[in-house]
Inverse folding.
């Protein structure tokens, strides 16, 4: 198992770059995919954003100073790429962010890559009502089992603020599930 | 009641004896959310078969073609003004070179003509590319706004629209 520092060094050198990039993609593809998928919901969109994220990582690796973990840094890029993607999508369709989120959840009902039942669909409806930050923290903690310390670096938010966002999100989702 | 001789503060009986248990309960509270919550353990998303196996090839393919791909410009009015600023610099530069052959200068172009040009021309620049050539250090907010924005307007807006001041610290474009 190659260490993160070695991988970063190899990515920065021309001769070892291609092989190191392949290792990087294979190591992080699944984690980053699920992170992105839970933001953009649609598989094809997630695939598009994931590929762009890896390309951005490849092109910006020289700017990675090693102050944080490589994968926290990649989560930051993946988060930004996903949110930017959604903004562009709503702009293109001439609708608001809120309208886009509602449309995305409605589309899930006929999505072949969504096998959720009634409660899971309701969960997505509840998530669509949350502010971006709360939704991100909830998914990263509840479904991706990430540590607060890693989420903190990825979202550039203090651990304390993340904990309160998470608990608030859980409460709001539970209330939504009970009342609807 | 237990008593601290130095400061006279008191704690409920058995407070310290049960402290460890309560602390552990608190620590496990997060894990317990999953087993006791109404929230389903899986969120129902699936992927096409073999998707992850083929992903590295798709990324390499996209990486190779990305350089030649034209990104459609879809900027806001604010961005048009920024492009106009970049264009003005470029036109001034080329204007100076051409000056030896003809007498056409930047003054001959009305700023509305420059704006019209960029509004009607499909300019193949992404916002990232524009950001790379724009020196934001020298760009003031009021340079890109039609009416001057006073500090009190900004404070009033933030007061009304920002729930969590931490949101202001998010720097989405800084990947360093």
């Amino acid at each position: 198992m190659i260490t993160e520092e070695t991988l970063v060094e190899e990515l920065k050198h021309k001769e070892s770059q291609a092989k190191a990039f392949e290792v990087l993609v294979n190591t992080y593809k699944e984690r980053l995919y699920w992170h992105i998928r839970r933001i953009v919901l649609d598989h094809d969109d997630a695939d598009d954003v994931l590929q762009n994220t890896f390309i951005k990582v490849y092109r910006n690796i020289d700017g990675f100073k090693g102050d944080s973990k490589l994968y926290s840094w990649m989560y930051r890029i993946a988060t930004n790429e996903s949110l930017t993607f959604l903004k562009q999508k709503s702009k293109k369709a001439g609708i608001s962010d809120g309208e886009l989120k509602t449309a995305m959840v409605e589309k899930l009902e006929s999505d072949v890559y969504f096998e959720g039942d009634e409660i899971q669909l309701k969960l997505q409806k509840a998530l669509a009502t949350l502010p971006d930050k709360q939704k991100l923290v909830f998914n990263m903690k509840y479904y991706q089992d990430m540590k607060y310390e890693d989420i903190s670096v990825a979202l550039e938010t203090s651990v304390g603020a993340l904990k309160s966002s998470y608990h608030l999100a859980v409460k709001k989702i539970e209330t939504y599930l009970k009342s609807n | 009641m237990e008593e601290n001789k130095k400061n006279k503060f008191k704690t409920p009986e058995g407070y310290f004896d049960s402290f460890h248990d309560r602390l552990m309960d608190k620590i496990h509270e997060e894990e317990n959310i999953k087993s006791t919550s109404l929230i389903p353990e899986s969120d129902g998303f699936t992927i096409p078969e073999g998707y992850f196996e083929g992903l590295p090839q798709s990324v390499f393919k996209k990486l190779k073609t990305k350089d030649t791909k034209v990104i459609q410009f879809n900027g806001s009015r604010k961005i048009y003004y920024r492009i106009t600023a970049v264009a003005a610099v470029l036109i001034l530069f080329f204007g100076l070179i051409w000056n030896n052959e003809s007498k056409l200068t930047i003054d001959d172009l009305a700023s509305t003509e420059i704006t019209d040009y960029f509004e009607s021309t499909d300019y193949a620049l992404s916002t990232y590319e524009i950001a790379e050539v724009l020196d934001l250090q020298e760009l003031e907010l009021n340079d890109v706004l039609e009416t001057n924005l006073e500090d009190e307007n900004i404070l009033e807006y933030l007061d009304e629209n920002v729930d969590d001041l931490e949101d202001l610290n998010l720097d989405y474009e800084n990947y360093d």
User: Anything to note?
Assistant: Chain A has a mean pLDDT of 92. DSSP finds nine helices and no strands in chain A.
